[in-house]
TetR/AcrR family transcriptional regulator
Amino acid sequence: MDTFAARGYNNASLAEIAERVGLTQAGVLHYFRSKALLLTSVLELRDQSDIQQLGPDRPQGLAFLRHLVDTAIRNAEREGIVRLYAVLSAESVTDDHPAQDYFRDRYDGLRGFVADALREACGLPDDGSEKVGHAANAVIAVMDGLQVQWLLAPGAVDMAASTDLVVNALLRTLAPDRFGADG
Amino acid sequence: MDTFAARGYNNASLAEIAERVGLTQAGVLHYFRSKALLLTSVLELRDQSDIQQLGPDRPQGLAFLRHLVDTAIRNAEREGIVRLYAVLSAESVTDDHPAQDYFRDRYDGLRGFVADALREACGLPDDGSEKVGHAANAVIAVMDGLQVQWLLAPGAVDMAASTDLVVNALLRTLAPDRFGADG
């Protein structure tokens, strides 16, 4: 995880990873077969620790949106994981990247979760309105974009405050009667 | 530009770049001295074409915010440039990346521009209120984050619609009397 976060996937060296865990490169490849499979395994391991938050038992509606803000608070204490995701998610759009499907699927799932949560929080039907989808994509995007800014200038960026501001502003836009015009 | 966008900086090969422009590697290095300086030159060249939009004569207030939405519309027609920035900005947080200062400075400048534009659009004084800063960081973040999602799944993401939604929602939050609670 640390090596992929510090160097990205393409620039990570199996020799460095092997040395950090006290194995030979052949030893690492005995367990993971290839650098690409090692990357996939690292991402899957990370996901297991978040599975309660994003699995079928995840909080619903407003509680899920508050959970996203809590995640931004927690992320400010775990720079390594933030860097891992920021670097790899963007690097995944390069040609033939082994984590491209992983991130495409991850975003597909997240977009659906956030759209569901917005609809439930706002009491809106799932009527195919595009506005909720645009808002859901924006919530995920703001969290991702803040991470890169924060990694480069931690003192200039409050990830939780900006996320909270956007979530509340979008809730007021989607359901002004429920979330009021001020506050 | 195409090679850095397709592979990222770390994984880009000078041999490939030289071949694409019909030079030897020594020929490329005659002009740019190193791969790092070539990258910096590519980014500076890109900036020159946007200089009117982000220089001292840039549009002010609401017009600047509308310009950001227009940029998102235009970006949907120029996948290569979007990929270049998405990949390199995130890769810049890896250890010893040659574009780290470039992106740190770029975001510093952008945060100031967007905060100024929000204050002017909302008729707010520059009184050190943190809310405008949080909103400015969020506007930049949402544009960046949408790019990665869009590159992975263009049909699922409307960058301009999501950006417009967030900008309007934040304007209503910062100045509800001026921008109204509905619309």
